[in-house]
Amino acid sequence: MSTVKGLDIFFEDTTGDIAHSDFVDYYNRMSFQVRLQQRQSDRVTYAVCDTMTTAGRLAFGPTLSTLVFGANNALGTVQYHHKQEVSMEQYLSRVSGSLCRKFKGSDGRVYTWTFVSTSECEEWACTANGAEVAAYDTENQATRNPQDSNRRGSGKQLWISENFQQLAGELIITLIIMRHIRKYGL
């Protein structure tokens, strides 16, 4: 994955579905795919791929990580390319409650994802040393203009600070796990 410095990264989550989506930067600097790889009675496996290595075309590129969830949507394992798999509970350890968890990034820093919900929005925020690194929000569908025919996406967006864009894949992978935890009440 190439790193382009200068601007924050703004991804559109094209479907909003944690199991099948494309995260595409609005300026086509980066893109990632989340795809179902295998479904069995005792587990479900997803691949997270870097699609910019396919010359900017959205195609199934090299796998960055494999996420395996257990029976009844239980947390399973995460495996980064060419590394040993780790249990998701160990990789994303609880800080306070189920929806506030931390992980150690490939740069050695500790990052914390936290879920915040208000009457106006729902947001996942990722911080490191008190500074916001990334945020994922859901556009309130009630405020969306139905006359705006150019808006065909899910309304979900991921922002990553320019200083942390080299961690985009890790941030997307951990966000997927966090959203799974919330969806299934784990």
Structure description:
The chain has one domain (9-144, 152-183). It contains two helices and 13 strands; from the N terminus they run E-E-E-E-E-E-E-H-E-E-E-E-E-E-H. The chain has helices spanning 88-91, 168-183, and strands spanning 9-13, 21-25, 31-40, 43-50, 63-70, 77-80, 86-87, 93-94, 100-104, 110-117, 122-128, 131-138, 156-160. A hairpin with a 7-residue loop joins strand 1 and strand 2 (21-25). The longest helix is centred in the last third of the chain and has 16 residues, at 168-183. The relative contact order is 0.20.
Low-confidence spans: 140-151
Strand order of the largest sheet: 7-6-5-4-3-2-1-13-12-11-10-9-8
Number of domains: 1
Order of helices and strands: EEEEEEEHEEEEEEH
**Average pLDDT, all residues:** 86
Helix content: 10-25%
Instruction: Report the strand count.
Output: 13
Main traits of this protein?
186 residues; 13-stranded antiparallel beta sheet; 11% helix; 2 helices; DUF6593; DUF6593 domain-containing protein; globular; mainly beta; single chain
